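Batch job 17 of 40 flagged for manual review because the log was empty.
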Amino acid sequence: MASALGLSFARNHISYFAIPAAFACAHIPHLYSAIASQGAYDNSNPRALKDNIASAGTLDEETKQRLIRAKRASENNYETIGLFAAGVAAANQAGAPTCVVNALSWGYVGFRVLYNFVYINLGGIRKTHWLRSAVWSLCMWSSVGLFVAAGIYSTKGDYQYELEFENI
């Protein structure tokens, strides 16, 4: 499958582009909560945003909770992006098939977009709490899958090297 940029999902290492996309997935909910909080964001004390939203008199309770969930979604994204980026680098370095690395990388990004939507918009509905956890698990398994692919293909390389070395 070719694109206007000449990139192929099967041939090009577009998994590296998933890392800045994952950063965007992490940062957009933060921007949303900061902008929509109607002045509750204080750039001199940015970590107080959740507390400032909770005590803001200009926001109704439902909006406060949604904005706090957006900030929490952002924090959760940032907590997992390191593992994901390391997995992308490891899988590519180990020589895992490009299509596998791309699928797992962009799957992570897609699941992160879904996670943000579910957490921010459905997080206030008690009956859907399991959905957020399920989507989070898919995100994490995508990252773990990158390391599994790295392990499989780096092991194949070592085994092949050992066979070549023994024949010398």
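Reviewer: the log was empty due to a logging misconfiguration, but the result itself is present. The chain has a mean pLDDT of 86. Unflagging and moving on to job 18.
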